[in-house]
Design brief:
The structure holds 2 protein chains of 2 kinds. Chain A has 2 domains: 122 residues, no CATH class; 127 residues, Outer Surface Protein A, domain 3. By secondary structure, chain A is mostly helical. In chain A, the strands form 2 sheets. In chain A, strands 3-4-5 form a 3-stranded antiparallel beta sheet, with helices on both faces. Chain A has a two-stranded antiparallel sheet with strand order 2-6. The longest helix of chain A has 20 residues. In chain A, 45% of the residues lie in helices and 8% in strands. Chain A has 11 helices and 6 strands. By secondary structure, chain B is an alpha/beta fold. Chain B has a single domain, classed as TIM Barrel (Alpha-Beta Barrel), CATH 3.20.20.150. Helices cover 39% and strands 22% of the residues of chain B. In chain B, the strands form 3 sheets. In chain B, strands 1-2-3-4-7-9-10-13 form an 8-stranded parallel beta barrel, surrounded by 4 helices. In chain B, strands 5-6 form a two-stranded antiparallel ribbon. In chain B, α4 packs across α5 and α8 packs parallel to α9. The longest helix of chain B has 19 residues. The radius of gyration of chain B is 18 Å and the shape is globular. Classes of the chains: A mainly alpha, B alpha/beta. At the A-B interface, α1, β1 and α2 of A face α2, β5, β6 and β8 of B. β1 of chain A pairs antiparallel with β8 of chain B, so a sheet runs across the interface.
Chain lengths: 251, 286
């Protein structure tokens, strides 16, 4: 009796489903536990991918809590593409809806940081913006449009996600504050780095993606009267948050 | 049937290793006998960053094999067009000496299951897989090598042996073969076959590359030996002996050492590559 791939797949991600008939041990006896090798391979390889993909969530939860949770996630959300480097985009929402972890409301945003770090790692290369662009007169400068580097990522949270992330990855770091925080991920060379964004900077960055510089500074000042453009710009330039404006980003 | 108009390229008949990013510095400084490296295609389908920078540097030094693990050649559905386009782009960018994939399936519907799953060997699957290979070779623009799987079970419906199935695919599509000697050892042990008989019936003329690697030992519920393809240990002596047996019949071929899990320090993998090179040297000077 032919075994369809639908039958083979159904039992793969369901440990309670019977082994499909029509599979044997090469000598005519039912395949039995031999089928479990494929079951184990699929689940174990996806669990391993999640451990690599969400290192900070795993640090915060502890491997003893994170690892047993993963088979539930991977069975509910198998990959949708062979590009395993992008696996796990459903994980933040999975955490938000997972009642037993509801008391750790910030975990989903930490998962978003892990995802964004990985996206940044694989993003296209780009020549950084030449800072001399800021030497032009104010009236032309304010109409200038800047382009974020492909590896630049911005995340805003209701939680002190920068402090939580730093504390998870460096136990000697100060205890998290209680404020909401926004973070910036940049990749000056090959390793993405996480930075705390000062007040108003996230508004500025989200605006500058499709607004000229002058309007973006105004938007940031409206959102955060304490917005310090000079300090924000220094942070962004030093960490190559902007790409050279004439370079093609499509690569 | 694929007929290439492009100049044929080949891997050197020398030792290669499956490339791991953590070995980059040591591999480039102290390659030992390694003349070529193999990458998993899907790990280099991002847009930029370190993976591509390392690959550019590696191709300055070594010949390159692009080894896909996500095309699902054995799937019931045709190979994914978007994925074939990614492969084509990667191959155009790095001009590898070899491109290979697996006789297996991994995609079902919209799901990618991240494992190499088995298929029965029948006239119907032969027609289907040959069609998929034709599609891939046309889309990617070059010949592919197809790798024999490691098997833990058999399909009762199969009417062809694996070696006959592969030989017929070569005949119908013009594809080459990647002979994984470790997989032969695993499948033969698991299914009660003789690995040397398998090698002797394999279409060795079509082999463009050989793999060796490590495996784990387990048992099924009846106490029968069950070997698991882990790529996480040294190559065992019976597999080295099977490589010798193969090379004595096939003549020199590119031989790759695979080590993908519990990856050791470079020196350990380099020693394995040196051993593969020694096996090749033996057949050159009988």
């Amino acid at each position: 009796m032919p075994v369809t791939q639908a039958q083979f797949r159904t039992a793969l991600l369901n440990a309670d489903a019977p082994v499909p008939a029509g599979l044997d041990d090469g000598g005519g006896a039912p395949a039995g536990a031999r089928y479990d090798v494929y079951r184990n391979n699929v689940t174990a390889s996806l669990v391993d991918a999640m451990k690599l993909a969400f290192p900070t969530v795993r640090l915060l939860l502890g491997a003893q809590n994170f690892d047993p949770l993963m088979p539930h996630f991977v069975r509910a959300h198998p990959p949708r593409s062979p590009l395993m480097m992008y696996y796990g985009v459903e994980f933040p929402a999975f955490l938000e809806n997972f009642q037993p972890l509801a008391h750790l409301g910030y975990l989903a945003d930490i998962a978003r940081i892990d995802l964004a770090m990985r996206t940044s790692y694989h993003a296209a290369d780009a020549r950084p913006l030449d800072p001399s662009i800021f030497q032009q007169p104010p009236e032309t400068l304010e109409d200038t449009r800047l382009r974020l580097a492909p590896a630049t990522q911005i995340l805003r949270s209701h939680w002190p996600i920068f402090d939580l992330w730093r504390r998870a990855t460096d136990p000697t770091a100060p205890k998290p504050r209680t404020a909401a925080q926004a973070v910036l991920i940049t990749r000056p060379a090959f390793d993405p780095a996480l930075h705390l964004l000062p007040e108003g900077a996230a508004t500025f960055l989200l605006s500058v993606r499709d607004q000229p510089l002058g309007a973006s500074v105004e938007a940031a000042q409206v959102a955060a009267p304490g917005f310090d453009f000079g300090a924000t710009l220094a942070l962004l330039l030093e960490n190559h948050a902007f790409a050279h404006s004439t370079e093609d980003s499509s690569k | 049937m694929y007929h290439s108009s492009a100049p044929s390229t080949r891997l050197p008949n020398a030792a290669g290793v499956g490339y791991k990013p953590q070995h980059f510095t040591d591999l480039t400084r102290d390659p030992g006998a390694v003349a070529w490296v193999e990458i998993h295609a899907e790990n280099y389908m991002g847009d930029g960053g370190r993976p591509h920078a390392q690959l550019r540097a590696l191709t300055e030094i070594f010949a390159l094999s692009v080894h896909g693990v996500g095309l699902s050649i054995g799937g019931e559905a045709p190979p994914d067009k978007a994925h074939m386009a990614r492969l084509r782009k990667l191959i155009e960018t790095y001009a590898p000496q070899s491109f290979s994939e697996h006789l297996a399936w991994s995609t079902h519907g919209a799901e990618f299951l991240n494992d190499l799953l088995p298929l029965p060997y029948t006239d119907a699957t032969l027609v289907r897989v040959a069609g998929h290979i034709d599609t891939v070779q046309q889309s990617v623009g070059r010949q592919m090598l197809l790798e024999n799987p490691s098997s833990y079970l058999a399909f009762t419906e199969s009417t062809l042996s694996e070696t006959d199935f592969l030989a017929e695919l070569v005949h119908r599509t013009g594809c080459g073969l990647l002979l994984d000697v470790n997989n032969v050892f695993i499948s033969s042990t698991n299914l009660g076959l003789d690995p040397r008989t398998y090698i002797d019936s394999f279409p060795l003329d079509a082999v463009g590359e050989i793999h060796v690697g490590g495996h784990d030992e387990d048992m099924d519920e009846h106490g029968a030996r069950l070997l698991i393809d882990s790529h996480g240990a040294q190559v065992v002596d019976p597999v080295w002996a099977l490589l010798d047996h193969t090379l004595a019949r096939s003549g020199p071929r590119p031989v790759l050492v695979e080590w993908d899990t519990d990856v050791p320090d470079w020196e350990v993998l380099r020693d394995e590559a040196d051993r593969a090179a020694a096996a090749l040297a033996c057949i050159r000077t009988p």
